[in-house]
């Protein structure tokens, strides 16, 4: 097989980073990205892009930690380089505060982020409703910049990107040798995955350039994440809700909760409201599958279901998916050479 | 009772406010006046990035450490108030970097969350092998000085736009106490060989992805002669110039090059930052802050009472409120003395 043709379905952070990893591990591959949405209209564009992992109940912790570590290291190097601002990657320090001391005081990722330690009494005084907290420095991937930077790097290696709504992965079998399914919440319909469900998140993106630190309530519901130009205020976690329209009552509620964490947000300007559906699953679906119809086969690599933790593990899962793609190509080349015999 | 403050930088205006707040209720006849030839945004205070951070060592000057702490605590108390944005006040975290281990600073327990840098963090800063992380405050004078001015105006304090040439000029006009907050030019009111300029230059850039202050230190070159990057609300300040004895307020191309190259080495992404301004100013440097009262006699029967509050070098914002309160206390003593002088002697 001269130049194996790989289609990546989906152009959010998972699709684009997976496509990039494939070009890195398989330089002879011809990679194409197909998606009905590109930045700034993907789920990733709504997210703040903070590197604070979500825990998947169905994936071993050491695997999640490995994914997070790979992602953090990759982004750390970019944040340290001249490309940091273009890629939208920057360091941010802040606090995770708890109303009640959590049972698990040390999350699995505490030694991956920088400077992780419990908050001092003096620091906690800023949060009178909270008893305990953790201070650390982590990375943030601002979107659209990060996705646009990925797109730019993909185009530089010759990857083509097309706006196309794929309704059935099998439709791609005649044009491509391997299909990579990074369709996020779209996988619910695209491959009929009933284990994939949305967790609706509404956020506000506001102008408050004096907010330089992040604040996150340990319950994961209320957070203040300063980005390059805007601060993301969140949020909600509404299971099985598919509605993409902003809800005004929710907007007010998010604003109030964030102001109680950071009173200066009362002066925030130019409030924009966004909604995204976290593509949630017990575990990330990261596995090969072979579709077959009428004697024809199509190897598929699934890489979706990252829920609330897409940014935190994207590079790690992309590398794993690229490895699976190589296995698929090797298998195809093996069987095609056998066919020639 | 007329009190005149000379100087409308952070020291002059905060001293005026502190005095007004403490005494206008107790002494309804108190008139506070501010005299200055430069007001915000044309003062030295306006050029400062606004980071609350004392020098590395207080040289045993515990008084200054106390004033620094009083200022930090005062500002921290205002953080949650609605005035914070108007004051230009907010929290900021960041890094102090060294090429060798150094003793902890006098202010380690004043700031929040002070700790040493981990090896992983030091990877961000090649060439530096030791450092601190802490959360401190920013107080942008471009906002703070107008906020102070507003509060003073609301309180009935009068402002005069003039260059005061001597204490006599003001006291001869009927002012009872003069407060000398003239900063760099205090020497023109009364020669002070210990007051010398510490010239600084800064480049202002748009780099909104920078969320931390980064202050490097070169023990040999001295304070602020090593690159620093301080992100504000609207722009990020790049600096690292401290030239003792240089009175020039003109931007120097050589200093621009020094700042730009050293800051870009520290944070490579700055190469893409758009430059939006450049500024030079003179830090009013002195071995220690001059904060004391003086009675200057004129002939046999007259004397002018002066409270000096100048020589805050590169830590004016950091120390301003502690000094304002100390100056107000000195004024209180003077007011007490004057009251005693006027009231009849009780029960001899």
Automatic annotation (TrEMBL), chain A:
Annotated binding of D-dopa, by residue: 223, 278
Any single GO molecular-function term of the entry would be: FAD binding
What are its cofactors?
FAD
The EC number(s) this enzyme carries: 1.4.3.1
Which residue intervals define the domain FAD dependent oxidoreductase in the entry?
A: 5-324
Alphabetical UniProt keywords? Cytoplasm, FAD, Flavoprotein, Oxidoreductase, Peroxisome, Signal
This protein is called what? Answer: D-aspartate oxidase
Q: Organism, per UniProt?
A: Piaya cayana
Automatic annotation (TrEMBL), chain B:
Residues the record lists as binding FAD: 49-51, 164, 313-318
Q: GO cellular component annotations, sorted alphabetically?
A: cytosol; extracellular region; peroxisomal matrix; presynaptic active zone
* Alphabetical list of InterPro entries matching this protein: D-amino_acid_oxidase_CS, DAO, FAD-dep_OxRdtase
* PROSITE patterns with a match to the protein in the record: DAO
Q: Where is the FAD dependent oxidoreductase domain?
A: 2-330
Q: Which residues bind D-dopa?
A: 53, 217, 314
GO biological process assignments: D-alanine catabolic process; D-serine catabolic process; L-proline catabolic process
Report the EC code(s) recorded for this entry. 1.4.3.3
Question: Which GO molecular-function terms appear in the entry?
Answer: D-amino-acid oxidase activity; FAD binding
**Where can this protein be found?**
Cytoplasm, Cytosol; Peroxisome matrix; Presynaptic active zone; Secreted
Catalytically driven reaction(s): D-valine + O2 + H2O = 3-methyl-2-oxobutanoate + H2O2 + NH4(+); D-proline + O2 = 1-pyrroline-2-carboxylate + H2O2; D-cysteine + O2 + H2O = 2-oxo-3-sulfanylpropanoate + H2O2 + NH4(+); D-tryptophan + O2 + H2O = indole-3-pyruvate + H2O2 + NH4(+)
Q: In which residues is D-serine bound?
A: 228, 283
- At the top of the EC hierarchy, this enzyme's class is oxidoreductase
Spell out the Pfam families in the cross-references: DAO
Q: Which metal ions or organic cofactors does this protein require, according to UniProt?
A: FAD
Keywords (alphabetical) are:
Cell projection, Cytoplasm, FAD, Flavoprotein, Oxidoreductase, Peroxisome, Phosphoprotein, S-nitrosylation, Secreted, Synapse
Family named by the database record: Belongs to the DAMOX/DASOX family.
Q: Which PANTHER family match?
A: D-AMINO ACID OXIDASE, D-AMINO-ACID OXIDASE
Can you name this protein? D-amino-acid oxidase
Q: Which gene encodes it?
A: Dao
């Amino acid at each position: 097989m001269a130049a194996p043709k790989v289609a990546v379905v989906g152009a959010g952070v998972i699709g684009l980073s997976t496509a990039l990893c494939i070009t890195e591990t398989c330089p002879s591959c011809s990679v194409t990205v197909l998606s009905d949405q590109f930045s700034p209209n993907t789920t990733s564009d709504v997210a703040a892009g903070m590197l604070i992992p979500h825990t998947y109940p169905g994936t071993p912790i050491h695997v999640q930690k490995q994914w997070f570590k790979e992602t953090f290291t990759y982004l750390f190097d970019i944040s340290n380089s001249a490309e940091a601002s273009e890629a939208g990657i920057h360091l941010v320090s802040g606090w995770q505060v708890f109303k009640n001391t959590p049972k698990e005081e040390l999350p699995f990722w505490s030694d991956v982020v920088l400077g992780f330690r419990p908050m001092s009494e003096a620091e906690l005084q800023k949060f009178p409703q909270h008893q305990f907290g953790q201070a650390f420095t982590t990375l943030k991937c601002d979107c659209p910049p990060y996705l646009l930077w990925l797109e730019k790097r993909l185009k530089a290696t010759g990857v083509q990107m097309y706006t196309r709504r794929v309704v059935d992965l099998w439709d791609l079998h005649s044009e491509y040798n391997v299909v990579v399914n990074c369709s996020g919440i779209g996988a619910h319909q695209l491959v009929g995955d009933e284990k994939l469900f949305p967790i609706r998140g509404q956020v506000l993106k506001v102008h408050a350039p004096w907010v330089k630190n992040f604040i996150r309530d340990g319950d994961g519901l209320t957070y203040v994440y300063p980005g390059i130009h805007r601060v993301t205020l969140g949020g909600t976690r509404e299971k099985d809700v598919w509605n993409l329209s902003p809800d005004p009552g929710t907007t007010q509620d998010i604003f109030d909760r964030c102001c109680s964490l950071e009173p200066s947000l009362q002066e925030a300007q130019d409030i924009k409201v966004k909604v995204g559906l976290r593509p949630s699953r017990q575990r990330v679906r990261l596995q090969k599958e072979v579709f077959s119809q009428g004697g024809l086969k199509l190897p598929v690599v699934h890489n979706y279901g990252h829920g609330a933790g897409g940014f935190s593990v994207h590079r790690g899962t992309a590398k794993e998916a690229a490895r699976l793609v190589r296995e698929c190509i090797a298998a195809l080349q093996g069987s095609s050479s056998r066919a020639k015999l | 009772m007329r009190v005149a403050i000379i100087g409308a930088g952070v020291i002059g205006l905060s001293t005026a406010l502190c005095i007004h707040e403490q005494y206008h209720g107790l002494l309804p006849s108190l008139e506070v006046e501010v005299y200055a030839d430069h007001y915000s945004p044309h003062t030295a205070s306006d050029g400062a990035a606004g980071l609350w951070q004392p020098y590395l060592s207080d040289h045993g000057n515990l008084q200054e450490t106390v004033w620094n702490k009083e200022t930090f605590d005062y500002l921290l108390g205002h953080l949650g108030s609605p005035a914070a944005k108007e004051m230009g006040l907010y929290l900021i975290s960041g890094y102090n970097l060294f090429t060798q281990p150094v003793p902890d600073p006098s202010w380690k327990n004043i700031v929040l969350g002070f700790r040493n840098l981990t090896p992983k963090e030091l990877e961000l800063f090649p060439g530096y092998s030791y450092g601190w992380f802490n959360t401190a405050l920013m107080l942008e004078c471009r906002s703070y000085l107008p906020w102070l001015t507003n509060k003073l105006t609301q309180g009935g304090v009068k402002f005069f736009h003039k260059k005061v040439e001597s204490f006599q000029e003001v006291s001869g006009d009927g002012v009872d106490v003069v407060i000398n907050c003239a900063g760099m030019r205090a020497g023109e009111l009364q020669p002070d060989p210990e007051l010398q300029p510490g010239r600084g230059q800064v480049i202002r850039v748009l780099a909104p992805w920078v969320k931390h202050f980064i202050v490097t230190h070169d023990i040999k070159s001295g304070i602020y002669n090593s690159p620093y990057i301080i992100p504000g609300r609207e722009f990020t300040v790049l600096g690292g110039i401290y030239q003792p004895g240089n009175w020039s307020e003109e931007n120097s191309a050589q200093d621009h090059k020094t700042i730009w190259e050293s800051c870009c080495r520290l944070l490579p992404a700055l190469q893409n930052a758009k430059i939006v301004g450049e500024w030079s100013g003179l830090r009013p440097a002195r071995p220690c802050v001059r904060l004391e009262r003086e009675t200057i006699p004129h002939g046999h029967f007259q004397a002018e009472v002066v409270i000096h509050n100048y020589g805050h070098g590169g830590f004016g914002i950091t120390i301003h409120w502690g000094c304002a309160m100390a100056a107000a206390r000195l004024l209180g003593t003077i007011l007490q003395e004057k009251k005693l002088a006027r009231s009849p002697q009780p029960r001899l």
